[in-house]
Amino acid sequence: MSFIPAYPPVHFGFGALAELENELSARGVDRPLIITDKGLVEHGVYQVVRETLPPTMNVAMYGEIPENPTIAGIDAALAVYKTEKCNGIIALGGGSVLDSGKALRVVALQGGEVMDYLKDPAKITKDVAPYITIPTTAGTGAEVTFGGGIHPETNAPAMGIRSPNVKPDVAIVDPTVTLTLPPRLTAATGMDALTHCVEGYLSNASNPPGEAIALDGIRRVVDFVERATADGGDRVARSEMAMAALQGGMSIYMGLGPIHALSMAFGDSPLHHGTLVTVAMPAVMRFYNGRAEVRLAQVAEAMRLTPDADAGNRIADATAELNDKLGLPDTVRKMGYDKNDLDRMIDDAHGSYFNHAAPVAPNRDDYVGIVTEVLG
Ligand SMILES: [Fe+2]
After folding, report:
1. According to DSSP H, which parts of 231-341 are helical?
2. Structural domain boundaries enclosing 120
3. Residue range 290-315, pLDDT digits in tens
4. Which of 127, 147, 199, 285 lies 20 to 30 Å from 303, alpha-carbon distance?
């Protein structure tokens, strides 16, 4: 049986920001809070968005969402929301800001502590604040997903906030706001999008329209991530990568898998998520080689590789090669990870809920090999 989910509506393309005012008024929001991060304020991206709204509108801003989403950041944004008597939220940023907004929309209306909802997402009702997302990285796909990870403390592993009720009301994907994204982040978040498309496509969910979206997203990343990284001003490449990231977010609706389970293994250090998952991808593709042949062949074809029985290994090699060309590392050690408790890493990867969607879930012994290879 198939389940075909509904994604949030999306305004896509250069100029899409012009829709923001209409989307606010359609929801009766006349006192929005824009949450964002320091870099986007410093680089003028916040100002670009602010200027799409009337100067007379009461727009509040919280500009200090941290690099990885934390309860402290959400609480600080909530204080501004209350003081300024806001009635809706706009999240402008990468995955951290977009996921923070999902938790913020809950506590803004339902009250209580963020931790209450992390421990028991079933407590999240439909009673949430209006929520519009504007992604500035391409990306996490968090602009359309119905879950996110929030860290209770900066260095503590993330806890999930998964609920259909946190799904954004509408996403505005305007590549204009990705033009200033630095090369390294362009590369790493672009490869995160690839892993979302690949894991979503390979998942055990049946969703033919979603699968078509995933394969299309794979093609776009493979064709355009190097261009977008080499020349941030390449508007065609930026637009293609913004679409690939959105398609990655839609692919997440089918589930993820061991690549993202591995991000849990190293979740006790603040490593960049996109870099971490693309470093993890080759080892997982080698594990799948010969185990999920038909699906792997389709992924290989989307990556312009020979779709034969060795497709898993070909995908692994091509991903490693692409990472290298993009200047990304090939092991987690090279990302600066300095922990040594291998058994704990293996347990965390093996115990992750991401494995539930895998076409073939690695057992603990399999993870010994995979974690060792990814760690380096
Ligand atoms: Fe991811």
Report:
1. 235-252, 258-265, 273-288, 293-302, 311-325
2. 10-178
3. 998 889 999 999 999 999 999 999 99
4. 147
Q: How far does the centroid of ligand 1 lie from the alpha carbon of residue 193, in Å?
A: 7
CB atoms within 10 A of CB 288: 25
Helices and strands, counts by H and E, the chain: 15, 8
In this structure, what CATH number is given to the domain that contains residue 64?
Answer: 3.40.50.1970
299: in domain: yes
Q: State whether 278 and 188 are in the same domain.
A: yes
Burial of 66 (0-12, 13-18, 19+ CB in 10 A): middle
Count of structural domains, the chain: 2
Q: How far is the CA of 27 from the centre of ligand 1 (A)?
A: 30
In a domain, 1, yes or no: no
CA–centroid distance, residue 83 to ligand 1 (Å): 34
In this predicted model, what pLDDT tens digit does every residue of 212-227 receive, in sequence order? 999 999 999 999 999 9
pLDDT tens readout for residues 341-368: 999 999 999 999 999 999 999 999 999 9
Mean pLDDT to the nearest integer, 331-337: 96
* Dist. CA 353 → ligand 1 center (Å): 14
Residue 222 Cα to ligand 1 middle (Å): 17
Q: Is the pTM of this model over 0.85?
A: yes
In the prediction, which pLDDT does 290 show? 93
Residues 55 and 29 in one domain: yes
- The pocket of ion ligand 1, defined by CB under 5 A, consists of 192
> How many A from CA of 246 to the centre of ligand 1?
12
Query: CATH code at 319?
Result: 1.20.1090.10
Q: What is the residue whose two structure tokens read 């407590």? A: 123
In a domain, 3, yes or no: no
